[in-house]
User: What shape does this take?
Amino acid sequence: MEIDEKRFREWMRSLFSKLLLNYTEFFSKDGVLNSDGRRVLEEILRPSVKRYFRLRKIAKKVRKNPSLENVIRLGEEFMPYDVMMKMVEFGIKKHYLDTNES
Assistant: This one.
């Protein structure tokens, strides 16, 4: 059973939000996805490429080089660039605040 377009896009936005709002958990200090981040990326890529064949080129690129830049480029299919960058900024600030409270 295939989900409708609206639900699919909401699902993808929620996965991108998970990655970006938890930036320090899923990305290394040099801005590349770590192994946990790659697992979330695969949750995004498999169904996205299956549904939107046109994404296979960027999917190949982001698998080869899972940098923040490439993840954002893929994410622009599902949400605006500025929203994603605000999520990254929030994720970094949240981590900074959490580590300074300890």
